[in-house]
Description:
The protein is mainly alpha-helical and 396 residues long. The radius of gyration is 24 Å and the shape is globular. The two termini are 39 Å apart. The strands form two sheets. The protein has a three-stranded antiparallel sheet. The chain has 15 helices and five strands. It has helices spanning 2-12, 18-29, 35-51, 56-66, 69-83, 93-98, 111-127, 155-169, 173-200, 219-232, 252-282, 288-321, 325-330, 334-352, 367-379; strands at 208-213, 236-240, 245-250, 356-358, 392-394.
Amino acid sequence: MKQVIDQAFAAALYSDGDAGLDTGASLLAADPTADAELFRRGEEFVRRAWERGWQPADVVRIVRRELGETAVGLAAGLIASETGRYERLPPRWRPQLDGLPAARPRNRPDRFSYASALLSLYRLLLRIPAIEPVAPPPGTSPRGPHLPVAHDEPRMLTRIRALLAKAEATGFPEEAEALTTKAQELMARHSIDEALLAARACSKEAPGACRIGVDAPYETAKAILLDAIASANRCRAVWNSDIGFSTVVGFEPDLEAVELLYTSLLVQGTVAMTKAEAGQRAGGRKRTKTFRQSFLMAYAQRLGSRLLADSARVTAAAEAETESEAARVAAPHLLPVLAARDMAVTDAAERMFPETTTTRVRGATDLDGWTHGTAAADRARMGGNGPEIHGRRGKR
């Protein structure tokens, strides 16, 4: 059994051609006694991914990108089985595991096809590079200045998510605007309240980090949008274009706000782009790719400007609130608190990514796409604040 698996791995995992996969799959398909050990070896590959800094959502993302949905089902089964060994999981892992797709049944549609797909997955897992860790691997003790402490999602964030979901679902613009305005107020207030509470308690909380997928197509525009949102919420984002995600560094409530706002604005932008593109096609124009690319680039750039203006306004308003007599007694001034948090986030990001490169952004070439994207950004409902920035990419 072990000899068969070793032979199959030697043929399939350390070569690039399909011939090696076929040879390995044939060996495994002919020996049913190797099934249990084959799956156990897969769990080892998953465990090595954790040790290299990967998390469940990262593995699913790269598998989907490189191999497709069939392999995602195989990876989901391995991930669920491997992580079931641990009594305690790292921060942010439980929602990732709950969101895994259904595991694919073993040996379907036949033993050879299943073995071939599994070996392709193992070959990918064997070759994924080490990436910057944002949490300790499962089964280890937290260490390092940038690792957050696990905790349940605050009730306030649950409420914000519900407001955004209602805003996306309603067909009435006035209702959507009211819902997102309320979500915006709660996101800004939640983040500021967390900062003040931490300062009052002399909290030793350190910035944490999370990874957010930045998927093709038009990933450059999406990365710019995420970067702007991160800066708006006192976070730093570093884009890894080769693997398809950005690492966002910041304090926990700010990271939650970034995830919420990025999801909301990306959904709104996609809906607006689809409607605008339909109008373009109805008028006889077929520049779909250039239209979309220009639309999303303009959308990201314009939202960056809006976020910058909102950042100054929200912070100034909150600082004014702390000027009351009661606030002066109960809490330190807000601006020094936020400045200290900004410095802590910058230091943590620079430790995680001591070298970054600047990404050159191609200019937009479709004037109609740019015009529609800018208009969509002006209509977008958002919470938060922050400046437009250019994509920073981790240097490997």
